[in-house]
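pasting for the record
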Amino acid sequence: MGTSEAAGVRRCVAGSFVAAVFHRQDSERPNVLIAALLAFALIADNAAAQDGPYLFDVLLKPSYLAGWRKLMKDVQPTPDWLERFVKNFDGVAGPMKPATIDGRNFELFFVCKPHECATRKFEVMFEAASKRAYGALGGDWAPPAFYGAPTPEMQDVLIKALKG
């Protein structure tokens, strides 16, 4: 963040947004507050836009959907909250997190039980090139269960993601 002052004007630079705040009278302070709130909203909106896609977004693409469906055939028994997500892609999910394992790129996503994300979570990892899917179901009730035959290195990444 940079600032410059000249002729009673202070410029605050945040990203590509520039706000000029005039230091004159107390009657102008509400305008300053409004300008500051607008600047914060623009910066926060820009940061949110930088999140990756969500699982329910990528499952609309045929290549991801094929890998997902193949993986979900292995998840038996399927918890009720995950079964609901499988049917309509409606549920609590997070943005994509990239990972690299043995020089290959992967995309990690999660879906979890509403109000119990820390303890009931399914991580899915798609290989970026082929969209082959691997998964881990975990929580405080048991050690993680792995699906799609992930390698030990992939399992380590999935375990870290379940805990994160």
